[in-house]
Structure formats: C-alpha cells, structure tokens
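Q: What residues go here?
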C-alpha cells in the first residue's frame, strides 16, 4: 500500500512540475517577444529572404517563420537557466510599462551602436598595446 501511495505521489509531483515548467516556458517566450526580439527576427527573415525570387517568396516566408517557435523555445530555455519564473514575471510586468515598451523599441539600435563603439574602443586599446610592446 505504501508503495502505491509513493508511486501516486511521485506521478502527481512530476505532473505538477511539468505543468509549472510549461507555464515558465510560456512566460519566458512571452518575455522574449516583449523585448523586441520578435521584430528583430522578423526583420532578419525579410532581409535574408530578399534574395529569394518573388514567385517563391511566399513559400520561403511560411517555412522561415515556422522556425521561429523553435528559436523562441531555445532562447526561453537560456533565460530559464538564468532567471526564476518569478523574475521572468517581473520582467514581463516591466516590459508592459511605457518605459519597458520604449526600451524594447530602442534596444536593438542601442545594442548595435554599442557594439560599434566597443569595436572602435578595442582598436584604440590595441594601438596603445602595440605602442607599448615595441
């Protein structure tokens, strides 16, 4: 009898954990979409698809866009390793505020500009290192 009860408890806890993980992943995907990543990925699909002939464009878009859900789930798993479910919920709340929405619209551009600044800085530091290595 104890074994049956133990098996039932293990089964129930496994199901509850799976449901909680599904909810966590759903929230993580929602967060990713709120950050502006969805529009960045859509832009990438359109840019890459620019080389596809017009008569094949519709089929390309259908197939390319079908890959997004898998990408969102993979990225969600990255976030799930770094943040708790409650933290993801807080991030969702933030990205639903006016400031969060503003950040989402500007984040890609700011990241790109920051990378360019970082590259320029890296070249400057490399020149300093070369100057001091002679």
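A:
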């Amino acid at each position: 009898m104890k074994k049956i009860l133990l098996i039932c408890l293990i089964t129930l806890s496994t199901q509850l954990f799976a449901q909680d993980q599904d909810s966590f992943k759903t929230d993580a995907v929602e967060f990713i979409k709120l950050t502006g990543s969805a529009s960045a990925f859509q832009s990438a699909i359109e840019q890459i698809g620019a080389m596809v002939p017009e008569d094949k464009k519709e089929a390309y878009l259908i197939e390319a866009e079908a890959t997004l859900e898998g990408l969102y789930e993979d990225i969600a798993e990255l976030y799930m390793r770094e943040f708790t479910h409650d933290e993801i919920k807080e991030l969702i709340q933030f990205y639903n505020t006016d400031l969060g929405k503003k950040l989402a619209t500007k984040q890609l551009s700011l990241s790109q500009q920051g990378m360019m600044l970082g590259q320029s800085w890296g070249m400057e530091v490399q020149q300093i290192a070369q100057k001091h290595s002679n």
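A: Context that may help when evaluating the design: The mean pLDDT is 87. The chain has six helices and no strands.
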